[in-house]
């Protein structure tokens, strides 16, 4: 079984990042047909330039969006849990008296003194 993969010389870096940044150009694989070599040589010259990739949404905006989605998910989960599972009114979950009652129940169960 012959190995048909192209082998680069040991002196050139084999890192994909180095090739992507243009430091090392990977030579096209050698083929038995001279027409294929001529086409690949023309294809390299006619290949469009690659442009630097820019971010459409900045990292800080992504973090803010993720935090907002987490807060919305938490609120929706509390509404569903309090109304569907706990048989309460859906918007009562946002009242401070509801949370005071929950904290009182939790503290009463942990009081050992």
TrEMBL record:
Keywords: Membrane, Transmembrane, Transmembrane helix. InterPro entries: RNApol_su_b/EpuA. Coiled coil: none annotated. Residues 1-46 are annotated as: Disordered. Signal peptide: none annotated. The chain crosses the membrane at residues 59-85. Pfam families: EpuA. Residues 17-26 have a biased composition (Basic residues). Residues 27-46 have a biased composition (Low complexity). This is EpuA protein. It comes from Geobacillus thermocatenulatus.
